[in-house]
């Protein structure tokens, strides 16, 4: 890094990516900063810069001591150990050590006392809530929201007739032909553990998933005009049931509340929906399958005069971006649910759903809101009084 670049960073002050320290003498304190960056996307620590932006005047001897301090902190006070990179920057007012901490691939990282630190703006804080810690494990691929057990949901909650039909259609055998007990079969299919349904099993095959999972539904509302109203709406529905039922009911809700274009068809023929059905199917399926189950909130479907919005709890996982998903990149957040969804929904699980949706109807925007922890799809309608982007 050039001195001019360093001065530009100092001029912007500390934030979630840059931390300034006049000096460092405590391995524990430095380790905590590195843990926070490792858990929060990575960042840079500058040692030799005071909080007011002035240089501390560190010497070459200081650099040798700091390198050893950093090495000990990263290897002995961070669990699992990390490998930050250092660079010594020469300025007219002394040396500055730049420590680059990459985004960790083995989250969650902890200090030597087992405390998980995360960044909070320019500061750090302890991660204490269960959901936040679970999401760190999720980002590391150590746990998935769809495999969380649902307390109280047992084999008695299985819709046996529905599951029997699914099993015979997809495996070509009857349940009666199986040598295993039904609960053991469900465990082998990763739908149950210790005779308790996980989220996937409950959403896919239980008789009444919303009884124990009331947040994992779809809230669908039709608003007059183009803004959200607290009390005024044309139609509203809490869509519940198995995920296959929720999918079909959500599609029907939107299709029933948008225009259908007659074109050259006979007056008695059904018109084509202004938004193609395949586009709605792909986007609603994605919202149901890839939502974050560590967030207790419903998927929301809002119909306005000029657009339809589909809002999923949880921003895009890991390093996915809007541009990535438009090119067909994918990162499966809920692998159990996704594997069964290919047999129940018009979902292929190959990262091609967004491409198909855009090919059928390009007037779609995507917003990956990391601060709000949500992902929003906006489909612009072919309304007479609005123009699509």
Q: What is this entry, summarized?
A:
The protein has 389 residues and is an alpha+beta fold. The protein has helices at residues 3-12, 27-39, 60-76, 130-139, 160-171, 182-188, 199-205, 209-212, 243-255, 277-290, 322-326, 335-344, 353-360, and strands at residues 18-21, 43-47, 78-79, 85-91, 94-101, 110-111, 117-120, 123-126, 192-193, 196-197, 218-222, 235-239, 260-261, 272-273, 299-303, 307-313, 364-369, 374-380. It starts with a helix and ends in a 9-residue tail after the last strand.
Please describe the structure with a list of short key phrases separated by commas or semicolons.
389 residues, alpha+beta, Methyltransferase, Cobalt-precorrin-4 Transmethylase, Domain 2, Heat Shock Protein 90, 3 domains, 18 strands
Q: What would you note in describing this structure?
A:
The protein is built from 13 helices and 18 strands. Helix 2 crosses helix 3 and helix 9 packs antiparallel against helix 10. The chain has 3 domains: 141 residues, Methyltransferase, Cobalt-precorrin-4 Transmethylase, Domain 2 (2-Layer Sandwich), CATH 3.30.950; 64 residues, no CATH class; 163 residues, Heat Shock Protein 90 (2-Layer Sandwich). It starts with a helix and ends in a 9-residue tail after the last strand. The model has no long low-confidence stretch (mean pLDDT 91). The strands form 6 sheets. The chain has a 6-stranded mixed sheet with strand order 12-11-15-16-18-17, covered by helices on one side. Strands 1-2-5-4 form a 4-stranded mixed sheet, with helices on both faces. Strand 4 and strand 5 form a beta hairpin. The protein is of the alpha+beta class and 389 residues long.
